[in-house]
Specification:
Radius of gyration: 22 Å
Shape: globular
Helix content: 25-40%
Number of strands: 19
Number of helices: 15
Distance between the termini: 34 Å
Structural class: alpha/beta
Largest sheet: 7 strands, mixed
Length: 532
């Protein structure tokens, strides 16, 4: 494939990418590179809904307060304000465009309640909200003549010339290396759940955007904060499948093998406590009883359960279970990463010309633990905000000169180079789940880092084969997560250290950023995210 040029390059095809592309259509030529097919990203897998203060008795201030409580003292107030105040506008825009969210008999949006929300504020399309949002955004994109999409394009490097991002390099569907030069580049690559053995994330969520940005010299922040969703279908031989928090919002309860509810002992909010507390309570109850933990809805009307959650009911049916009548075995799995590429409120990273939005970015809006159903809202709001910043940047700076050519591919064509002894994707993900997972401590983190450091050194030469690029992303991001978790000697939000089990507001009410060769701490109350 010949090298390409455009005004705006977007890497990713989820909610943040598509919302940005819509606002860029009239400003220049936009190219979207997506790693898989157009609908393979995390957005299409999002079940529960999108939170916004659109209901009676709700407000942006109340939504912000709930977000900040869930964030355990590390939310950036300005980012939370932007999210909660602008969110209703962008959600109503989706409704105006024809998004088929569930409605009450009177026609108003049906609102659900999820963990750590004080009121019902979650709009939903049954249990396939992300799929519906993707549908309406792709429908709008189809009417944008200056937006081009290349599927099965695996971005492997952010291109930098001097201090400026000039675009990216990618492997096409035949494994050929190509380059794109762009005035402004947006990373919207989603999360990194695939760095763990147990995850709700699709296979494409391997942390590529974080890894590419870090290799290009960008700062990353708060990577110790990985959210483990508490309720994932846990049936031997069946794929892991997210059982949305909306189930508990509609009355589902958690019970042990004896049928006893236990969440009230663990947290006053019971099943609707923040996700980190529910996940740890499930793990501890399983350990205490040496048995399984189950999600139960058999006290609710079966017809309602099946109508409200058809996708989840179908997944349970394929595993031989009836969501409405059976106890469903559940366990935690990696779900969402609150940290990411450090950005300011416009989406600029510390590398000029490179922006990030959605899960790959760290605005500080989620703090140490994301409030349920704020993720789709984050992509929607900050995707649009990033588009405005890209337009302004391009108008001021224009298209850059292309970056120097990439280093030559390793011998062997599209085959991955031989991995060092013991290194494989399975080994890396097993190690992350075992030593950098739900419960952490210094000795295990140190042991994990020794292994990850050795693997990272072996993978340091840029790999140009798809399998090697994926493995490099998993090891790079895993190493960054482990380093961040070892640094933070406290427990806060989704980060739990059994050797430092208490929250320490004196020493650790701060964000920690890392770039190559530099670690910086910024107090949570400071502005932070200053663009270089």
């Amino acid at each position: 494939m010949a090298d390409l040029e455009c005004d705006f390059l977007i890497i990713g095809s989820g909610i943040a990418a598509l919302r940005a592309a819509l606002d860029l259509d009239g400003a220049g030529e936009t190219l979207i590179l997506t790693k898989g097919g157009a609908a393979q990203g995390s957005t299409a897998f999002a079940q529960g809904g999108i939170a916004a203060a659109v209901g009676a008795g709700d407000s942006a201030a109340l939504h912000a307060a709930d977000t900040i409580v869930a964030g355990a003292g590390l939310c950036r107030a300005a980012a939370v304000q932007a999210l909660t105040e602008q969110g209703p506008r962008y959600v109503r825009e989706l409704l105006d465009w024809g998004a088929r969210f569930d409605r009450e008999p009177g026609g108003e949006a049906a609102l659900a309640r999820e963990g750590a929300h004080s009121v019902r504020r979650v709009l939903h399309a049954r249990d396939a909200t992300g799929r519906e949002i993707c549908r309406i955004l792709w429908k709008r994109i189809a009417g944008c003549p200056r937006v081009r999409v290349i599927e099965h394009a695996l971005a492997v490097d952010v291109a930098v010339n001097g201090a400026r991002c000039t675009g990216a390099r990618f492997l096409d569907d035949r494994g050929r290396l190509a380059s794109v030069t762009a005035a402004a580049t947006l990373l919207a690559t989603g999360g990194a759940g695939q760095i763990f053995r147990e995850t709700t994330n699709p296979s494409v969520a391997a942390g590529d955007g974080i890894a590419m940005a870090y290799r290009a010299g960008a700062r990353v922040a708060d990577l110790e904060f990985v959210q483990f969703h508490p309720t994932v279908l846990d049936v031997e031989g069946a794929p892991r499948f997210l059982l949305s928090e909306a189930l508990r919002g509609e009355g589902a309860v958690l019970v042990n093998a004896a049928g006893e509810r236990f969440m009230q002992r663990a947290d006053p909010a019971g099943e609707l406590a923040p996700r980190d507390r529910v996940a740890r309570a499930i793990a501890r109850e399983s350990q205490r009883t040496d048995g399984r933990v189950y999600l139960a809805m058999d006290h609710l009307e079966p017809a309602f359960v099946r109508a409200r959650f058809p996708t989840i009911a179908d997944a349970c049916r394929r595993a031989g279970l009836d969501l409405a009548r059976d106890r469903i075995p559940v366990g935690p799995a990696a779900h969402y990463i609150m940290g990411g590429v450090d950005v300011d409120l416009d989406g600029h990273t510390s590398v000029p010309g490179l922006l990030a939005a959605g899960e790959v970015a760290c605005t500080g809006v989620h703090g140490a633990n994301r409030l349920a159903s704020n993720s789709l809202l984050e992509g929607l709001v900050f995707g649009a905000v990033a588009a405005g910043a890209m337009r302004r940047w391009a108008a001021e700076h224009g298209r850059p000169r292309p970056a120097p050519p990439a280093p030559p591919a390793p011998a062997g064509g599209d085959r991955a180079p031989a991995a060092p002894a013991g290194l494989s994707e399975r080994a890396a993900r097993d190690l992350m789940w075992r030593d950098v997972g739900l419960f952490r401590d210094g000795p295990r983190l140190t042991r994990a880092l020794e292994t990850l450091d050795a693997w990272a050194a072996a993978l340091e030469p840029a790999a140009r084969a798809p399998a090697a690029a994926r493995l490099a992303s998993i090891v790079t991001v895993g190493r960054l997560v482990a380093r961040a978790a070892l640094r933070r000697e406290e427990s806060r939000g989704a980060h739990y250290r059994s050797d430092f089990p208490e929250r320490n507001d004196i020493d650790w009410t701060r964000h920690v950023t890392e770039s190559k060769g530099r670690v910086t701490a910024v107090d949570a109350g400071e502005a932070g995210h200053v663009r270089n």
